[in-house]
Amino acid sequence: MKKNEQLTWVIYDISKNKARRKIVKATEEAGLYRVQKSVFLGSINRASLDEMILKVKEWLNEETDSVYVFPMCETDFKKIILLGQAFDKDMVTDEIVSLFF
């Protein structure tokens, strides 16, 4: 993790395919990694996070969609307990796996 970056989770439930694709693209462009179908995780600086949030708001339907953004300090991140599959191993990079071990 680089200086001035914070581990951040983005979790979403988006009803329309086009909006979902745009939101996924904005999340990936911000440097986050998909860890499950509707969950992203990664290190991001505040400016990139703010930019990503603006893009997400453009496509978000506030009547039907939900997006949760959880910035997390490294100390709290290390307290996460993974149960079961925890994340989709076909989607997760070694960089993300290394955060947990």
**Which residues sit in consecutive blocks of at least 5 with pLDDT less than 50?**
none
Q: Which shape, going by the Cα principal axes?
A: globular
What can be said about the biggest beta sheet? 4 strands, antiparallel
Count of discrete alpha- or pi-helical segments spanning 4 or more residues? 4
Series of secondary-structure elements, N-terminal to C-terminal: EHEEHEHH
Oligomer: single chain
Quickly describe the structure:
The protein contains four helices and four strands. The protein is of the alpha+beta class and 101 residues long. A hairpin with a 2-residue loop joins strand 2 and strand 3.
What structural keywords apply?
101 residues, 38% helix, alpha+beta, Alpha-Beta Plaits, 4-stranded antiparallel β-sheet
Characterization of this structure:
- This protein is α+β, with helices and mostly antiparallel strands and 101 residues long.
- The protein has one domain (5-86): Alpha-Beta Plaits.
- The chain is built from 4 helices and 4 strands.
- The protein has a 4-stranded antiparallel β-sheet.
- The longest helix is centred in the middle third of the chain and has 14 residues, at 46-59.
- The relative contact order is 0.25.
- The model has no long low-confidence stretch (mean pLDDT 86).
